[in-house]
Design brief:
alpha/beta; two-stranded parallel ribbon; Rossmann fold; globular; UDP-galactose 4-epimerase, domain 1; 7-stranded parallel beta sheet
Length: about 325
């Protein structure tokens, strides 16, 4: 008998890659999506799985719709990937960010507690919760958390309510503390995709310059397709627990620019990039670097795609989008 998975945020980057993975493992996959979804089926179309998913209208801000989704699907596994996930926007919309990211996770947990208490639950946590706290510059599952944005604070609430429901009700609830993970279907508002998209445009003569914020920010970047494998593995364990998912390497935005422009044969990228004060944030998270030792030991998970390969993958995909066919090939 097929296992059943319910994925919130299925039209996003992670939801789409996760849907593809679970379908390959012969799951019946249900996707919760609001009636009006910004990205529609673009990401699922890109991965070729749109027609293989059953869609249910629902929203993390609407408790009744979550109860309906849980009762209809009777899921074995639930992956809560829906969120207001753009950090910069969380200062402009702190209440909505909290409503969706924090209270939304609680509503979903309550729906499961009352109508599917044996379902295994995955919560998409984030390295942003750590803020600028670290243990010798590297974050572990024991590192104290000091979030630097309304987004990170809302995610920290969800993290702790998941822990509380696991301890209070004996539910199988886990937090995947994922460090930055990117792909060709990352939203254009995120810095990595902004770089890959604009570098492709510059290579093709469609643009000349673009603006960025702090080029010295450092992140632990991996490939989203690798990271959804860790999500699935967490729900296959006998005992629920929290895991960091990361590459263990850190790179600056300058490093990303270097790799991106180098891939298209442009060495002097300084004339193509300018600092735009509009991208400055009220509080800046300086650096993130995660230790995934626990996930590697217990889950047997390891990242497969390197930083350089990730950058090349994203650039090539944007070149293909902008100029389909052989002309998009990078020598």
């Amino acid at each position: 008998m097929k296992r059943t998975a319910l994925i919130t945020g299925i039209t996003g980057q992670d939801g789409s890659y996760l849907a593809k993975l679970l379908l390959e493992k012969d799951y019946a996959v249900y996707g919760l999506m609001p009636r009006s979804t910004r990205y529609a089926f673009t990401n699922l179309d890109y991965l070729g799985v749109t027609g293989e998913v059953d869609y249910i209208t629902g929203d993390l801000a609407d408790e009744a719709s979550l109860i309906h989704a849980v009762r209809r699907t009777r899921p074995d596994e639930v992956y809560n990937l829906a969120a207001q996930s753009f950090v910069a926007a969380s200062w402009d919309q702190p209440l909505w960010t909290t409503e969706v990211n924090a209270c939304g996770a609680l509503r979903l947990l309550e729906a499961l507690r009352n109508f599917a208490p044996r379902a295994k639950f995955y919560q998409a946590s984030t390295s942003e919760m750590f803020g600028n706290c670290s243990d010798n510059g590297i974050q572990t599952e024991q590192t104290p958390m000091h979030p630097c944005s309304p987004y990170a604070i809302s995610k920290l609430y969800a993290y702790w309510i998941v822990n509380n429901y696991r301890e209070s009700y004996g539910m199988f609830c886990v937090n995947g503390i994922l460090f930055n993970h990117e792909s060709p279907i990352r939203g254009l508002e995120f810095v990595t995709r902004k770089i890959s998209h604009n570098v492709a445009k510059i290579k093709l003569g469609l643009a000349n310059r673009f603006g960025l914020g702090n080029l010295d920010s450092r992140r632990d970047w991996g490939f989203a397709g690798d990271y959804v494998e860790a999500m699935h593995l967490m729900l296959q364990q006998e005992t629920p627990d929290n895991f960091i998912v990361s590459t263990g390497e850190t790179h600056s935005i300058r490093d990303f620019l270097d790799a991106a422009f180098r891939h298209v044969g442009i060495s002097d990228w300084g004339r193509h990039v300018f600092i735009d004060p509009a991208f400055n944030r009220p509080a800046e998270l300086v650096a993130l670097q995660g230790s995934s030792d626990k996930a590697r030991k217990i889950l047997g998970w390891r990242p497969k795609v390197s930083f350089e390969d990730l950058v090349r993958m994203m650039i090539d995909a944007d070149l293909k989008r902008l100029l389909p066919g052989d002309a998009a090939h990078v020598e």
